[in-house]
Amino acid sequence: MEQLREKKGFLCDMDGVIYHGNQLIPGVKEFVEWLYRNDKKFLFLTNASNRSPRELQQKLARLGLDVSEEHFYTSALATAKFLAKQSPGCSAYVVGEHGLYNALYDAGITINDVDPDYVVIGETNDYRYEHIMTAMNLVNRGAKLIGTNRDMTTPVEGGTEIPACQAFVAPIELTTGKHAYYVGKPNPLMMRTGLHILGVHSAEAVMIGDRMDTDMIAGIETGLDTALVLTGVSTRETLKDFPYRPRLVINGVGDIPGNIPAHAIDPDLKG
Length: 271
Hints:
About 35% of the residues lie in helices and about 20% in strands. The chain is built from nine helices and 15 strands. Residues about 260-270 have low confidence and may be disordered. Helix 3 (about 55-60) links the parallel strand 4 and strand 5. By secondary structure, it is an alpha/beta fold. It folds into two domains: about 1-45 and about 185-255, Rossmann fold, CATH 3.40.50.1000; about 75-180, 3-Layer(aba) Sandwich (Rossmann fold).
């Protein structure tokens, strides 16, 4: 734990780590205060594409956390940056919420449901058969399929999960035979951008998250220290399903401030 506390940069997931739905996870406020008190560079790095950084900042403010807007980076921003670099001035058919639309607009990408260069899929509460049919036909006519992230589900209040981006992409992949390119975690593109924003080297940073299949593998493959929290998707039992491990497993980010907690969990899961 002391090795983690000495890091200069902290990349931290949000859903399942900072909050569940509209409920702040215990210990988060103390963790954020610790980051500020120790002059740590930190970035909340979320695969969710439905909200803008300002909306995320305002959400945390409503939950009692005062964190400025520059501390947020989303898969929507990463997707927009990727498309703008790959094909400046391109167009896209988009299934998602305003956070994704705004990011694409700001990157100079126009919306097109006739002959787009890309079909971009993110999270939405309004996913319909019409979306699948339109996306399928456009991909079959040559549009490239993009997913904002690989999350199949996401945790919400009450300990349950709901479908996420990859679940929405799957019907389009199955009906077209085409595979999507996913921009968010665990894609190293998003991680490297996060490090660039913080201005730290990978050896000086840690990735904190609740998912083995996105957060932890992203941290490992980018050369970051890794800390898995058990407040979201992963459990002590599901850790055994993966051929790789985080360096540290803790109950939640509230374990990080203060002295080394007695309940820090050994990744070997022995004893």
